[in-house]
Amino acid sequence: MVRKNLSISIVKKFIPARKSKSRKGDNGIVLVVGGSYIYHGAPVLSSIAALRCGTDLVYTSVPKINVTSTRAISPNLIVIPLVDQKLTRGAVHKLVGALPINLDSATIGMGLAIQEKNALLLLVKSLLDRDVRLSLDASALIPEVLPILANKNVVVTPHAGEFKRLFGDSPSDSKNDRIRLVEKNAKKYGITVLLKGQTDVITNGSTTYLYEKKIPAMTVGGTGDVLSGLVAGMLSKNRNPLESAAAAAFINGLAGKAVQKKLGLHITSMDLLDEIPIVMKPFDKIV
Question: Which of 111, 165, 261, 262 holds its CA 20 to 30 A away from the CA of 147?
Fold first, then answer.
């Protein structure tokens, strides 16, 4: 087992250079599926985070009740309405039919109301069958999805409670026990796990990256949604799920540290979005 603490020099290797002659779409096309009557902001935070980390196009799919507010927040988002208020099989069939054929990655679950578990499984399988790299969060983290994910390009991003729901084990307060538990489940199910916490644990079961944040301001709601968007954005350009998840966690943390330094303990997740391009400048490469 290889364990390393994340650093700028490591993460620089995980973020590909941009070709000077690249065209729209060459630097990533991302789908975000989330939102509900109550949680309208979560998929917006994920979508803008994906754009801010250098993704060319983001398609944001939200329930039709959220479409107007989502479009109003940012003209940069391409909004695809889900035909139902919650995720249903019918909504999934229509969504999959409306997606671009060259979609690179997707993140699913932020604030998403799911009416049928089978609808989520259908969406995940349909995207994986099209070789779309996936990041799953929040309501998408259910144990029934695990058999579909094995040995695919998938990242799951649970906090401790979601980890227990997904894997059946509760992470310990002991740092070493926590790391071993995450590694065990990542290896068992053939996926990359990013366990969020004071120290983020990112592992595929054979290599583990650790990122100690110490950013108490980031307990504010929505920082995990920003992270999910960053994971999908990184996955759209780097097919390696472990490297993409590690880079996303590191950039999310850098943005959080910068915002906390400016605003103290009074930040919102929207503040992170404006900071992402600034903290990513040292990682920019053009070839």
Answer: 111
